[in-house]
From TrEMBL:
Gene3D superfamilies: HAD superfamily/HAD-like, Putative phosphatase, domain 2, Trehalose-6-phosphate phosphatase related protein, domain 2. Its cofactor is Mg(2+). It catalyses: alpha,alpha-trehalose 6-phosphate + H2O = alpha,alpha-trehalose + phosphate. Its EC number is 3.1.3.12. CDD domains: HAD_TPP (cd01627). Keywords: Hydrolase, Magnesium, Metal-binding. Removes the phosphate from trehalose 6-phosphate to produce free trehalose. It comes from Modicisalibacter luteus. GO terms for molecular function: trehalose-phosphatase activity. This is Trehalose 6-phosphate phosphatase.
Length: 524
């Protein structure tokens, strides 16, 4: 396989004419739903065999087995590959086989049943940064196609409302109908390029699965981008990725960024307020990196008194909510104003004036896993200088800001191992922090939408404004975009964002809020 050719900075995406995106794990977070369904299928089936035949049970490993045998492959191919690893051979059967039949097709139908059950309870999460990236690529004039080995891909596109982002879609059903070989064969990528009418060399491909990266490489794509969602950077490179990133935001091409550079919310204040018209705003604010600068330790992020006074003034004119990854009680203490709404633990835990109270209905189920994970993290990382473990009610942050560069990999590996032992928890990122939180389709965006409904603001003529600086805030920007709200990104905006305006830093946030309060106080 080829050697790694690029660092994200060297990549010029706009020299390509088209791009092809995998779905699960690239655009939507459905790879984890598939993984849960595979685990339930194989562990159930292997347990049946162990009991019936008295053979030892060698359980499905959601990391290694998932990546090696099933990720990215057509369903039947994944089953065959996994069973082969356990020296099990089954007849192929026929696609109509009932889910309890002991054939490849029977097991495939059983997996599909589990997948649908998990999907119904957990919903579909979209990677907001991937959506923003695809939108930017399209604005820059590139054609886009979606490919997936999954027969559920069209259903997922409809559920998420993302179909408009693609000029062509090839899913598992279409691939089977047209006789395309599954990944790692290059067929599906070659077919996508031909549907977009470009030679593969003039297109780039984006994949997270080893089999998918290999397929795009074999299809001779001009550039193969691997997204590392499973700590397999070296393997992605070995399978043919030219460049590996943790998130597509890292690859925003300079010329697209230029073209998209967001208006500064202070410079464009009159235009922004004009767009609001006579309607009142509802102001949603992230805390760290938005209201206070990022500092070395969480407890040092203290709110400046002038900003507190501005928030008090603003709260007399409109709803003000703090939406934070911190523990709700902790962030409420730091802000120190009674009549605000506070959403903590990334929106899982909400309270506010007039008895407003909401804990995600299923969050408490995850407390035992969070408690155990916290204990394991503390034990594993006790001797790493600088690590800070911050427990929130419904999340655990492992901070590495003060950890020596040479130890960071060890910290990440520990978080990964602990996450692997608790599939009920999901790992997310942030600024020099690894987080574990409940594996539920809930985030800041969903919390903001919930608040708009709960506070009766969705019905009223209110323009929601969300200000944030971090990847977890992208969910809120994306949610408000769909509802005519405004997202303001804090930072240099050199990355993909679903926000519509930017503010340079926390000082600029303070000025913006103060001007907004002046304006609202002057209104009759
Ligand atoms: O959603 P937020 O309110 O922005 O909270 C996100 C995380 O912020 C805190 O960590 C970050 O800020 C710290 C203080 O500046 C900094 O030391 C750390 O490196 C940052 O990641 C907070 O401690 C976390 O719990 C929040 O999830």
């Amino acid at each position: 396989m080829q050697q790694p050719a690029h660092s994200p900075r060297d990549v010029t995406l706009t020299r390509y004419r088209a791009s092809v995106f995998d779905l699960d794990g690239v655009v939507t977070d459905t790879a984890r739903v598939h993984c849960q369904a595979w685990r339930k299928l194989f562990d159930g089936y292997l347990a049946e065999r162990a009991e019936r035949d008295g053979v030892p049970l060698w359980a499905f490993d959601p990391q290694g087995d998932y990546r090696r045998h099933v990720d990215g492959k057509p369903r039947n191919e994944g089953i065959r590959s996994f069973l082969e690893s356990r020296s099990i051979q089954l007849p192929f059967g026929s696609p109509e086989d009932a889910p309890d039949e002991e054939t490849i097709c029977g097991l495939a139908n059983r997996k599909q049943r589990f997948f649908e059950q998990f999907l119904a309870t957990e919903g579909v999460d979209v990677f907001a940064s991937s959506v923003a990236f695809i939108e930017s690529i399209r604005k820059a004039g590139l054609k886009t196609a979606l490919i997936s080995s999954s027969k559920n891909a069209q259903d997922i596109l409809v559920r998420t409302g993302l179909a408009h982002l693609f000029d062509a879609v090839i899913d598992g059903i279409e691939a089977e109908r047209t006789g395309l070989h599954g990944k790692p064969h290059p067929d599906i990528f070659r077919h996508a390029a031909s549907l977009l009418s470009v030679p593969p060399g003039e297109a780039f491909a984006v994949e997270d699965a080893l089999s998918g990266v290999e397929a795009a490489y074999k299809a001779d794509f001009g550039l193969v981008i691997g997204i590392d969602r499973a700590r397999q950077r070296d393997e992605l490179l070995a399978h043919g990725a030219d460049v590996v990133v943790d998130d597509l935001a890292e690859l925003m091409p300079a010329d697209v960024v230029q073209e998209n550079s967001l208006p500064d919310a202070l410079e464009a204040f009159d235009q922004l307020v004009g767009a609001m018209g006579p309607e009142r705003p509802a102001v949603f604010l992230d805390y760290d990196g938005t209201l206070t600068p990022i500092v070395d330790r969480p407890e040092l992020a203290v709110l400046d008194a002038p900003v507190r006074r501005t928030l008090e003034r603003l709260a007399k004119c409109c709803t003000v909510a703090i939406v934070s990854g911190r523990d709700r009680v902790n962030v409420a203490g730091l802000v120190g104003i009674d009549n605000l709404v506070y959403a903590g633990s990334h929106g899982f835990d909400i309270a506010g004036p007039d008895g407003l109270q909401m804990q995600h209905e299923r969050a408490a189920e995850f407390l035992p896993a969070l408690d155990a994970a916290e204990e394991q993290l503390r034990a594993r990382l006790v001797d790493v200088p600088g690590v800070l473990i911050e427990r929130k009610r419904f999340a655990i942050a492992t901070h590495y800001r003060l950890v020596a560069e040479s130890d960071v990999e060890r910290v990440e590996a520990a978080v990964e191992t602990v996450a692997g032992e608790h599939p009920q928890l999901r790992r997310t990122g942030g600024k020099k922090v690894f987080e574990l939180r409940p594996q539920l389709p809930w985030d800041k965006g969903k919390a903001v939408v919930w608040l708009l409904e709960a506070l009766g603001l969705a019905k009223e003529k209110v323009v929601p404004i969300y200000i944030g600086d971090d990847e977890t805030d992208e969910d809120a920007f994306a949610a408000l975009r769909e509802r005519g709200g405004l997202g303001l990104f804090v930072g240099d905006a050199s990355q993909a964002t679903a926000a519509s305006y930017r503010l340079e830093d926390t000082d600029a946030v303070g000025h913006f809020l103060s001007r907004l309060a002046d304006m609202l106080e002057d209104r009759p």
